[in-house]
Write a structure and sequence with these properties.
The complex is a heterotrimer of chains A (323), B (291) and C (281). With 291 residues, chain B is mainly alpha-helical. Chain B is built from eleven helices and no strands. Chain C has 281 residues and is of the alpha/beta class. Classes of the chains: A mainly alpha (323), B mainly alpha (291), C alpha/beta (281). At the A-C interface, helix 6 and helix 7 of A face helix 3, helix 4 and helix 7 of C.
Chain lengths: 323, 291, 281
C-alpha cells in the first residue's frame, strides 16, 4: 500500500520556488567545463601571439634552418626539432619492447601473487617527478654511460656504425632517450596491459587446443590480436615523450647541433625554451623561443590526437564481429 | 580421401626445441619486467643514500646560503611548494570538480565528447608550454614574477586531471540516489552537492590528491612564473622558491655542496609525493576491492 | 528440421528418422579410445567430477549430455588437459588414450593437445589470419612448411569440414569474414588439419542457427569414418541424431552410459529417464 507523505496539505502545486540556486549552480558547472575550452584557446593564442614576430621574420624556413645565434639574432628550429624527434623515437624504441614484454609477463605469465607488487612498483615509477629523474640522470646515469656503456659500445662492432661515433661526453642524445624511456615505461606498460587483458580467452584456448606451447600461444593468439592496440600504446607513449622537459634538459647536453651520432649532445624544443627563455634579450630571440613552443605544442597535439583516436576505435573493436 | 594413417609425427628434437624456446621466451619476458623495475630501485637507492646524509635540522629551517658558501637549507622552498600547491588547489579543485559535475550531471553526449577530448588535449600539453603561456599572461603585464603566477600555472594543469577523475567517480554513483532525491522534491543542485558528491567524496578526494602529487613535482611551469627565491616570500606577487626549482638549480650548478642539498631536496620531495600516494591508497582501500 | 518440437516426442522422432545406426553386437570388438577409471577433478576445494569410469570407443561419436553444471564441459576438457589452464585444478584417477596415460609424469600437455583436438562452443578463428592460415596454423607450429604438403592438407581439411566449396576461391580472406556457421566449420578444419586421433566438441552448435547446425551435424556423421568424436551437447535431439553412444552426467557423476538408442528409448537409471523425458534440466 503506498502512502504518500504529505508535507503540508495546503502547499499549492504552482508555488513559485526560487529557481536561481539551481540555475546558477548549473551555470557554474557549465562555466567550469567551458574553462577547458577557454584554456586551449588561451594556450594557442598566447603562443601564436608570442611567435608572431619570428613567424613573420623567418617564415617557414625557420623549421629547416640550423642556425641559432643570439648574437646575430638569427634563429632556426631544425636542431631542436631533430633533437625532440630523435630523443622521443629513441625513447619509444627502448620503452615499447620493454613495456610490452613486461605487460605480457604480467598478464600471461606471472603468478597472481607476483602481479600486484610488480604493478605497484611500476606505478611508483610514474610518480617520480621529471626533475628527480634528471638529478639521478646527471649524477648516476650519465657518468655510468660515459665511463662504461658508451665506451663498451664504441669499442664493439657497433662502434663502426655512424650512430656511435665521435667523442663521448656522457650527456648525449642517447642519454636523453634512455631517461625519457624510463619515464614513459609506466604508461606504455599500463596501456599494453589493458590491451592484452582485452584479448578474449577463447583465442588463447584455440591456440592451446592445437598443441601450441605457451610462447606460441602468446605469439599467435595474443600478440597478433593485440597488435593494433599496442601500436596505439606506442603512439601514446610518443606523445608523452615529446613533452618531457626537465629530465631531458639535464642529460642531453644542450648543444644545438644535428649529428648522426647518438653519443653527441643534442637539444630539444622544450630544453631550449627552459634554458634560454629567461635570458632572451631581444624581441626576436624571445619570439623565436615562442615559435619553438608553438611547434612543440602542435607536434605534441597531433601525436596525442592520433593516439587518442586509435585507442578509441580500438576499444570498440575487441571481441570480433562474429555474426 | 586420405585416411588417418596419414598422421605425421614431428621430430622429437623439434618438439624439444619448441618447448625450450617457450621457456626461454618466458625467461626473457621476466627479465624485461625486472629491467623495467630496476630504475625505480636505483633512483630510490640514490635518493636515500645521498639525500638522507644531507638532511639535517638546518635543511628544514634555514634559507639557502649565498653562492659558494656552505650550508644553508631549503626551508623556503619547502614552504614555497606548499604555498604553490595551495594556490593551485584554489583554482584546480573548484573548476575541476565543477567541470566533472557538468560532465556527469548536465552534459549532453555530444558536448561531453568534445569536452573530454579537450581535457585530454590539455593533459597532453607539455608543461613548459604552460610556463610560457602563464608568463605571457601574468608575468609580463604585471612586470613581475610572482607566486600567484606559479600557482595559476600549476592550477591550470590540475584542472583537466581533477575534472576527469571527478567525472569518473560521479558516474559511478547509482542513479537511484538521484531519483530518490528528486522524488522527495529536493532541488537539483542540492541533490548533486549533498547527495551525489557526498557519495563520491572519497573518489573525488583521491582524484585531487593524485593530481596534487602530479603537479608537486613539476618544475617547468615554475621556471618563468614563480622563478624561485633565495629568501622568504612575503607577498604573493613576489617570486617564491619551490622544491623542484631548487633541486633543478642546485643540480646543474657546479657546487658540490649544492649537489648534496639537491639530493636532500629530492628526497623530501619524493617523500611528500609518496605520502600523498599512500594516503590515496589508504583511502581507496575501504572503497573498492577491485584491482 | 525438427527443432521446435517438444522434447519428449522429438527424441523418438530423431531416433527413427536419422539417428545413428548402432549394433550392440559390435560393442565387444571395438577398440577403446579413452579408458578412464575413477577419474575425479577438483577446482580448488570444490569437487567437480566424482570417480568417473567410462570407456569411450574409437571411430564412433560419443555424446555427453546432462543439465547445466553437471560437469560435462569439465569432463571433456580433462580429455585434452585444457582444464590445466585454470589455476588450482587437480585431478585423480586414470585416464588413458589408446593405452597411453595422458597424465603421466613425462607427458607434455602440448603433445596431448595435438593428438586430441578441440572445437569450442563459440567459434574462435584467429582474426589476424586468413582462412588458409587459420587452417594451417597447427601444422606450421609443428614445423611443417613444405608448400605442397600444406596445400594438400588445406584442401583435405576444408573438404572434411564441408567448407571447401564455399571458400576455395577466397582462401586469402580473413578468417573472421565468414558467417558464424562457416567460422565454426573453419575451426573444425583447423582442428582436423593436424590429424588428431580424437576430436572433442564442446557444444559446437549452441551459437549457430538451425541451418548451420544441420551442416555441422552432417559433418559429424561423415567424420565418424576416420575420427573418434566426443561431443558435449545440451540439445538432446542432437545427441540422439548424431551419436552412437551417450553418457549422461549429473552433479559431476556419470549416471549412465550406453548405446544412444538405449539411453533415449530405454534408460536404466530413473534419473536418466527423468532427464531425457524432459522432466528436469
Amino acid at each position: 500500500m503506498s502512502q504518500s507523505v504529505v508535507l503540508s496539505e495546503t502547499t499549492p502545486l504552482t508555488a513559485a520556488t526560487s529557481r536561481w540556486p539551481d540555475r546558477s549552480f548549473r551555470w557554474l558547472a557549465i562555466g567550469a567545463a567551458f574553462m577547458i575550452v577557454v584554456l586551449i584557446v588561451l594556450v594557442g593564442w598566447q603562443l601564436s601571439r608570442g611567435a608572431h614576430l619570428a613567424i613573420t621574420t623567418f617564415g617557414p624556413g625557420f623549421l629547416a634552418s640550423s642556425k641559432w645565434d643570439p648574437v646575430t639574432d638569427e634563429y632556426g628550429a631544425w636542431p631542436f626539432i631533430y633533437g625532440t624527434l630523435l630523443s622521443s623515437v629513441l625513447a619509444i624504441v627502448i620503452a615499447v619492447p620493454l613495456g610490452v614484454a613486461t605487460a605480457l609477463f604480467l598478464t600471461e605469465m606471472a603468478p597472481l601473487k607476483l602481479r600486484q607488487p610488480v604493478i605497484m612498483i611500476i606505478e611508483m615509477l610514474a610518480a617520480v617527478p621529471s626533475v628527480i629523474f634528471g638529478l639521478w640522470g646527471i649524477f648516476m646515469l650519465v657518468p655510468w654511460l660515459r665511463d662504461h656503456l658508451f665506451e663498451w659500445i664504441a669499442h664493439s662492432w657497433l662502434g663502426y656504425l655512424p650512430f656511435f661515433k665521435g667523442p663521448i661526453y656522457g650527456v648525449s642524445m642517447l642519454a636523453g632517450g634512455i631517461v625519457v624511456a624510463i619515464m614513459i615505461l609506466p604508461i606504455v606498460t599500463s596501456i599494453s596491459r589493458e590491451i592484452l587483458r582485452s584479448v578474449p580467452n577463447l583465442q588463447r584456448e584455440a591456440a592451446y587446443a592445437l598443441g601450441a606451447t605457451h610462447w606460441e600461444v602468446i605469439r599467435i593468439a595474443v600478440l597478433s590480436y593485440a597488435g593494433r592496440g599496442i601500436f596505439g600504446a606506442a603512439i601514446l607513449g610518443l606523445g608523452r615523450a615529446l613533452g618531457e622537459t626537465m629530465a631531458v634538459t639535464m642529460v642531453i647536453g644542450n648543444r644545438p647541433e644535428v649529428s648522426a651520432s647518438l653519443f653527441a649532445p643534442g637539444y630539444t624544443l622544450a630544453s631550449a625554451i627552459a634554458n634560454e627563455f629567461a635570458e632572451a634579450n631581444s624581441d626576436l630571440y624571445l619570439s623565436s623561443l615562442f615559435e619553438l613552443g608553438l611547434v612543440l605544442l602542435l607536434v605534441t597535439l597531433l601525436v596525442n590526437t592520433v593516439a587518442q583516436l586509435m585507442m578509441r576505435t580500438l576499444t570498440g573493436q575487441g571481441a570480433g564481429k562474429v555474426k | 580421401m586420405t585416411t588417418a594413417t596419414d598422421t605425421f609425427e614431428p621430430s622429437r628434437a623439434y618438439q624439444t626445441w619448441r618447448k625450450w624456446k617457450s621457456h626461454g621466451m618466458g625467461l626473457l619476458l621476466g627479465l624485461c619486467a625486472v629491467a623495467v623495475m630496476t630504475p625505480l630501485f636505483l633512483v630510490l637507492y640514490f635518493l636515500v643514500s645521498k639525500g638522507a646524509s644531507a638532511l639535517d635540522w638546518n635543511f628544514f629551517t634555514q634559507l639557502p646560503k649565498p653562492t659558494g658558501e656552505l650550508g644553508g637549507g631549503m626551508a623556503n622552498a619547502i614552504v614555497g611548494t606548499l604555498m604553490l600547491l595551495g594556490m593551485a588547489a584554489v583554482i584546480g579543485v573548484p573548476v575541476g570538480v565543477m567541470g566533472g559535475v557538468y560532465l556527469a550531471e548536465y552534459g549532453s553526449d555530444r558536448a561531453n565528447y568534445w569536452i573530454r577530448f579537450a581535457a585530454d588535449v590539455l593533459n597532453g600539453i607539455p608543461s613548459i608550454v604552460w610556463g610560457v603561456v602563464v608568463w605571457a599572461l601574468l608575468v609580463v603585464p604585471f612586470k613581475t614574477f610572482s607566486a600567484y603566477a606559479g600557482g595559476v600555472a600549476l592550477g591550470f594543469m590540475m584542472i583537466p586531471l581533477v575534472m576527469r577523475t571527478t567525472e569518473e567517480v560521479l558516474i559511478l554513483v547509482p542513479q537511484s540516489y538521484r531519483e530518490a532525491g528528486l522524488a522527495l522534491g529536493i532541488a537539483r543542485w542540492k541533490i548533486i552537492t549533498v547527495i551525489v558528491i557526498k557519495a563520491a567524496l572519497k573518489g573525488i578526494i583521491t582524484g585531487i590528491l593524485i593530481a596534487t602529487a602530479r603537479i608537486a613535482g613539476e618544475t617547468a611551469p615554475l621556471l618563468f612564473t614563480a622563478l624561485g627565491n633565495n629568501y622568504w616570500n612575503h607577498s604573493l606577487s613576489e617570486p617564491v622558491a619551490a622544491l623542484p626549482l631548487q633541486i633543478y638549480n642546485y643540480a646543474i650548478s657546479p657546487y658540490e655542496d649544492w649537489h648534496r642539498q639537491a639530493w636532500a631536496g629530492a628526497l623530501v620531495l619524493m617523500v611528500m609525493i609518496l605520502t600523498l600516494n599512500i594516503i590515496v591508497r589508504v583511502i581507496s582501500r575501504g572503497h573498492n576491492k577491485s584491482n | 528440421m525438427a527443432d521446435v518440437v517438444p522434447a519428449k516426442l522429438s527424441v523418438q522422432q530423431a531416433m527413427t528418422a536419422g539417428g545413428a545406426p548402432s549394433s550392440s553386437k559390435a560393442m565387444a570388438e571395438e577398440s577403446i579410445a579413452f579408458d578412464i577409471k575413477d577419474f575425479s577433478m577438483w577446482y580448488g576445494a570444490r569437487q567437480a567430477l566424482y570417480d568417473v569410469t567410462i570407456r569411450i570407443p574409437a571411430k564412433k561419436v560419443t555424446a555427453i549430455i546432462g543439465p547445466s553444471g553437471c560437469g560435462k564441459s569439465t569432463f571433456i576438457r580433462a580429455l585434452n588437459r585444457m582444464h590445466e589452464l585454470t589455476p588450482g585444478t587437480r585431478i585423480a584417477g586414470d585416464l588413458r588414450l589408446f593405452g597411453d596415460n595422458l597424465y603421466g609424469p613425462e607427458v607434455e600437455p602440448t603433445v596431448v593437445r595435438r593428438r586430441v583436438g578441440m572445437v569450442f562452443q563459440k567459434s574462435n578463428p584467429f582474426p589476424t589470419m586468413s582462412i588458409a592460415e587459420n587452417v594451417l596454423v597447427g601444422l606450421r607450429l609443428n614445423g611443417l612448411t613444405q608448400k605442397d604438403f600444406l596445400r594438400q592438407r588445406l584442401e583435405e581439411s576444408l573438404r572434411m569440414a564441408a567448407l571447401w566449396d564455399e571458400v576455395k576461391d577466397t582462401l586469402g580472406r580473413p578468417g573472421i569474414s565468414l558467417s558464424g556457421g562457416q567460422q565454426q566449420r573453419l575451426c573444425i578444419a583447423r582442428a582436423l588439419a593436424v590429424k588428431p586421433e580424437i576430436l572433442l566438441m564442446d557444444e559446437p552448435c549452441s551459437a549457430l542457427d538451425p541451418i548451420a547446425t544441420a551442416k555441422v551435424e552432417e559433418l559429424i556423421h561423415s567424420l565418424r569414418a576416420n575420427y573418434t568424436v566426443v561431443i558435449v551437447t545440451h540439445n538432446m535431439q542432437q545427441a540422439a541424431r548424431c551419436s552412437d553412444k551417450t553418457a549422461f552426467f549429473y552433479m559431476g557423476k556419470l549416471i549412465e552410459y550406453d548405446e544412444t538408442r538405449a539411453i533415449f528409448m530405454n534408460p536404466a537409471n530413473p534419473q536418466t529417464e527423468a532427464y531425457v523425458s524432459g522432466r528436469f534440466g
